[in-house]
Amino acid sequence: MPQNWRGPLPWLAMAFAANVAAIGAAAYLLGQGVVDREELRALAMIAVAGSALMFVLAWKIIDFAVMRGIKRMAAEIRAIAHGGNRSDIEAARYPLLAPLPDSVNQIIAKMIQARQELAEGLKSATGKAEENSNRLAAILNDLHEGVVVCNLRHQIVLYNSVVMDMLAGIGPVGLGRSLFETVTREAVTHMLEVLTHRPEMGSRGTPFLASAADGTTLLQARMSLIRTNDGDATGYVITMVDASPQVAALSRRDALLREVAEGLQSPLIRLRIAANNPVIVEREAANIEAAIKRVTDGYQRALSGWWPMADLHSADLFAFVAQRFDQSTVKVTVTGLPVWLHADSHSLALTMEAMIRQISDRFNLAEVDLAAAEDEAGSWVEIGWAGSTAAKPALDGWLAQPLHSLGGMRVRDVLDHHAGAEIVQEHRAGRSWLRLPMRKGIEQHYQAKVAALPTRPEFYDMALLDAARDIGEKGRQPLRSLTFIVFDTETTGLQPSQGDQIVQIGAVRIVNGRILSGESFNRIVNPGRVIPPESIKFHGITDDMVKDKPPLGVVLPQFKAFAADAVLVAHNAAFDLKFLRMNERQFGLKFDNPVLDTMMLSNYLDGPETGHSLDAICDRLGISITDRHTALGDAIVTAAVLLNQIDALESRGITTLEQVVKELDMNMALHERQRAF
Questions:
Q1: Which residues are catalytic?
Q2: Measuring CA to CA, which residue among 52, 37, 43 is closest to residue 23?
């Protein structure tokens, strides 16, 4: 019998065809008059019953021979797929499903082959991974430094034997355990926040000091972030050594050197007074003092060379210090321009916190200022308050304050290690300032800037400034009593009328002649369009940086609330105002604040012949620029320029906003006339 005739289905098909043929024949006979209608009805009933019987029989056969067969085959396939011992299914058990079983067996053979190749690959990769793991373990255990790797939940995922030896006596060390069971939390979280905020600082690991959880061990550590290819941090690596012996030895030598220097000071004074030959005595005393100073300076250089320091932004440092007073009755206000320092962020933040608490307790203060500055010789940070300066015994007591999270080191020790220069107190503008000398840092950039960049068009649309001349009551107030919001924008390009949009808004507040750099506004904006490469070279903001940021419809109302009714200030203000004003109607806002333009003020004060770019003005005024071509960085620098310009205006007898606006309007009219000739 042919292969195609095996099984019940062909026979059922033949029976069905015969039944149909019988019905057709009966209809033909009826038409020829051979049979009457009653006979035909009986034949039809028999045909219908036969058809129903055949359909039922066919369904039962299909259910038994096909559907159940498919289910049995599926079960066998699942068993093979889940690692069963069989390598194929028996095609002879499923004659009605041919040639499906043969095709399934081919797929199974390919799957088993791929499984074998995968197993061999995994075995090889596992062997290499174990080999690399053993090599890594051998390297880590051979290191003299402790190495610990943690995820962002601060759980230990890897450590070496040095860490175990160093910290096991303090608390439990193990995979999955919290690092904070053995190391103080604040030092680690502080550095993690620093590196997250300033990723450029962690490329080679950032040094810092930490203390063991029980305070018995001081750790000299270095942290690096673990990042994905997209730049997202997934964890961090800390290398550490026990610095307690070195610190103890340095402290003993420091105390001995101080004792020698202080012990010789009085005899030298008496020697000058009592000697018969004052010229010789004066000369020799000066030689002894110079020798002691050389030893002291050399010792301080040795201390600072050992101390774990990195370049850091003073604004970041002050923000960390201010955060430590969030729940305190003392308000810490950050003022002035930021500078770059070379310091240990953690120990310096603890030191400044201790000093502020001592000062506020001593003078019962509700507010303390923080500021930073620099000159050619170095940098410094300042703590300011309203009232008198501190007496020397009080200052000595503050410097002797122990820092328990740094193994009992004193405030003086940390400051000596940072610069070793004398702390200065001074009184200016009705406030006392305590100046803590620091070393100058080098500005760090996440993305290198291009030297030659396009500049914004000057005097972009003067009609924009005309709309901000309704100054009202503010016009008669002294300039120094006004609140200014100094702002800057970064954009996708220089043509707002052709679709360019804001990608960043930065602003800082000036109140009573003080730059409150701690009260700032800094938002990156999703512009809803691609940022051109030439603009990225200018401000460093990429499409990846803005993809998860809010649109301008969210940020612009936030900026309006921040600005409130203060006087808006910008450099080349008409350009920035154009980007604000063209979105007013869409978002239901109105920027009708009074506006000052530092570029126009520069033109008025210094004449049109001099340069009026922000860089040129800062160069003339000796203002250091940090974070150039970032909205907030440029806004803070522009704020410093404005305060210098207010000094110059007051020297000309111009003391109110109304007078400034009048002079600028006259100056611009003359400028436009000159351009016509």
A1: 629
A2: 43
